[in-house]
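HUMAN: I'm a chemist; might I ask for a sequence paired with its structure tokens?

ASSISTANT:
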Amino acid sequence: MRQRISLSSKFLICALALLITTPLLIAQQNSTIQFFYAYDHETITVSSTALPFTASKVTSPTISTNSANYVTFTVNCASGTSCVLRFLTDGGTPTASLGLRAPYGTIVQIYNHTDITKFSGIRETSTDVKLDVQYAR
């Protein structure tokens, strides 16, 4: 003969399971969260010569923990809406035909100090690109 589990027993079992697993899920989730706070910004005009981010905004000369660990920028055009940025974050030099493409309106996020320091960008077309950059640590 099969025993039936009452509704209140099922509820109690579910409640205990939640109580046991919730702290584990929270602990696992919190170990991967990283918070950044903005500390500086600028607008960079990118033309026919590859440019990095401004070094003094990326790396603190006195305290290494005050350096950028996160950068976000929006691709805008000096005029109109027909411009494309080409960029690399590996230390190479982008050209009008080499590098990751970011057309007008693209938002790019870089989460690593090394990649931020190795960033370099150039315009793909004849229209200059304006990068609205925000630095965070």
